Amino acid sequence: MREPNASPTPEPVPDPSLDAAVAPLEVAPDAGREWWRTAVVYQVVLRSFADGDGDGVGDVAGLRARLGHLAALGVDAVWVNPWYASPMVDAGYDVADYRALDPRYGELEDAEALVREAHALGLRVLLDVVPNHTSDQHAWFRAALAGDGAARARYLFRPGRGEHGELPPNDWESCFRGPAWTRTTTPDGEPGDWYLHLFAPEQPDLDWSNREVHEEMLDVLRFWFDRGVDGFRVDVAHGLVKAPGLPDAEGRDRRTEEHPGWDQDEVHDVWREWRALADSYDPPRVFVAEAWPARRAERLPLYLRPDELHTAFEFEPLHVAWRARPWRDVVDRSLAMAGLTGAPCAWVLTNHDVVRQATRYARSQWAEKGTNETERARWPDEVPDLALGRRRARAAVVLTASLPGVLYVYLGEELGLEEVEDLPAALRTDPIFARSGGTDPGREGSRVPLPWSGDAPPFGFSPPTRPDGSPSAPPHLPQPAGWAALSAQAQDGDPSSTLSLYRRLLALRREHLAGAGPMRWLPTPSPDVLALAREGTALQSWVNLGADPVALPAGARVLVASAPVEDGVLPGDAGAWVLVGG
Ligand code: NOJ
Known about the structure:
Strand content: 5-15%
Largest sheet: 8 strands, parallel, barrel
Number of domains: 3
Mean pLDDT: 93
Oligomer: single chain
Radius of gyration: 24 Å
CATH topology of the largest domain: TIM Barrel
CATH class of the largest domain: Alpha Beta
Bound molecules: 1-deoxynojirimycin
């Protein structure tokens, strides 16, 4: 007989080496009960959620019209990806004006109405702020290129190396491939200085050693906070500040090694300023960091000190294989970090940058972590078993929804959507696609417009006609015909659907887990099975990451399951919440 993979009470064990790095907690009077510690947050890629005006691009009107879907789903907050005026080179992460909506999405009044209506439904609204870089079409950068010295000082312009300045100022690489520098042309047509862009050339990096940059971004935050916005997701929060002198990286990998372009200590001054501003509002506003510092276990907690950012995405689940041991390790590591900082974990199964989980779990699972690149590189080589992938994806949320902390739900995951892998090249507008010479298909496959209803595209994504009566444009990315069966309408009322599973999980989470305490792992009959209990509730979460069925505890009453449980047996690749002795 196999030994059960029990470990009696592995409360997260703080790594003592981290203690010195994290200041002691100052405990606020309502510490531990704030909404953002246990919320479920729904991520909206606006152009792909719902189209209100028939141009084939989602917009604020579409989101407003579909807020009922989110309320019925049972989420607490909505996070809207950048909706600002933008040339959309990087899906809006290239912001031309932080105080205006892109006209494709609506007007400022639409944004204000959205916040009002969401609040009326009990939903909070988080926006996305992009402080590391602007668009090259931002007024500041245009003025900088036109030779305005004050404007140039807000970016990182440097002379090139080499005899004629023909070589980039240093050896840094863009996250989107290729050099992180682009050479400018002077107003009189001569080759000029270079400017830094850690992402696409159309996304010049701001110079955060310039006080004007701080003041401007604080003012942008105020602009939206004053309109009732509840907080921000902070884009590349480990970016912004660069090492003085912009020294060469000398081949260091920014993801795993200290790199002069990333995670500099001075960036924490920015977060302290932002936190002070957020705390000056009533109710206080909140931040969630997108941060990928190298040496994560040591460096990420620094962003979560009590006077900095409230939460940071827990990204390990995006890449972990569908296997029990690695999943358990991820959970333990994350909770250990949370134990150090007092910040809750913010669990993410997918987002707009990665392959959707139904597809990730539909191919062979490697024990070691994959990356986005390695995941997408598998597409031509291995036919996905989507039925299996969906089954596992359903089981995965049974696990993550039961963990202590915040849960993020990415648009369409509640419908079980898969990655769309066969988009035509002409529609792959992600800069990663072009800059990789087409070898990496990029991220558009996770951003295809949602199917809402009906038997054929656009599946209710757009209204039949535009306001002038002409027929609506097709969705900006084509939807697979098979999504008819996955539309919200098709799944509504079907108790076995993924939508029903998510609704039930979120309702039960509110009922049983909102006030629950820390978790502990439970003994299980197989090393492929993870089971956990939370303090203060009789609810247990059981997830079978193997193929063989296992018996649930005797007398367990099933509250929800990702696949039918018969005679107390949990099938393979399935999860269930059960009440035991409660
Ligand atoms: C992270 C965002 O999630 C991603 O979509 C974007 O391309 C980069 N930051 C650059 O802003």
